[in-house]
């Protein structure tokens, strides 16, 4: 793993563990096993590093959801699979922190918006394959529901796929 990759990995871990605002250059460098000056050698600033790490993790997660959808035989199976994948606590705090950071930073907001738009486009194409009416709007509502579930799980870890899928399935009808 390169130094840059170690820094990005350390950043995603620390954002999830401590929160965006509690990640310092010193703590990040220590986690990555490098000197603090190395952080600024590889990245223009600590906020730029945190943004790249968080948006990259979000992009990877969305890509994984597309793979999950591609293997689903029905819309219900797709909902089950996506929400089951989101039942895992991995990344929960990171995504919550990233969404919160996006409310305060235009660059992060734009990058997160691109990732979410990409997810909605893929979801709409997948829904169209099942003749779901108005797949673009349906995808927008389902994506917003998934985003909301991620945020709400920070407050209510009991909010699981088992309780949510039947409700969202009604949206697909």
From TrEMBL:
Residues 24-43 bind DNA. Residues 1-61 form the HTH tetR-type domain. It comes from the Bacteria. Keywords: DNA-binding, Transcription, Transcription regulation. InterPro entries: Homeodomain-like_sf (IPR009057), HTH-type_TetR-like_transc_reg (IPR050109), HTH_TetR (IPR001647), Tet_transcr_reg_TetR-rel_C_sf (IPR036271), TetR_C_31 (IPR041583). GO terms for molecular function: DNA-binding transcription factor activity; transcription cis-regulatory region binding. PROSITE patterns: HTH_TETR_2. Pfam families: TetR_C_31, TetR_N. PANTHER family: HTH-TYPE TRANSCRIPTIONAL REGULATOR BETI, HTH-TYPE TRANSCRIPTIONAL REGULATOR RUTR. This is AcrR family transcriptional regulator. It comes from Saccharothrix violaceirubra. The lineage of its organism: Bacteria, Bacillati, Actinomycetota, Actinomycetes, Pseudonocardiales.
């Amino acid at each position: 793993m390169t130094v840059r990759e170690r820094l990005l990995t350390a950043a995603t871990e620390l954002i999830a563990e401590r929160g965006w605002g509690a990640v310092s250059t010193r703590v990040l460098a220590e986690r990555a096993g490098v000197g603090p000056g190395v952080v600024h050698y590889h990245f223009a600033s600590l906020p730029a590093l945190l943004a790249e790490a968080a948006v990259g993790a979000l992009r990877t997660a969305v890509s994984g959801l597309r793979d999950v959808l591609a293997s689903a035989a029905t819309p219900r199976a797709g909902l089950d699979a996506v929400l089951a994948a989101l039942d895992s606590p991995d990344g929960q705090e990171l995504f919550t922190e990233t969404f919160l950071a996006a409310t305060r930073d235009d660059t992060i907001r734009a990058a997160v918006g691109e990732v979410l738009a990409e997810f909605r486009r893929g979801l709409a194409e997948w829904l169209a394959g099942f003749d779901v009416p108005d797949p673009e709007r349906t995808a927008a509502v389902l994506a917003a529901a998934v985003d909301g579930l991620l945020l709400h799980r920070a407050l209510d870890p009991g909010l699981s796929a088992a309780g949510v899928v039947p409700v969202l399935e009604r949206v697909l009808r």
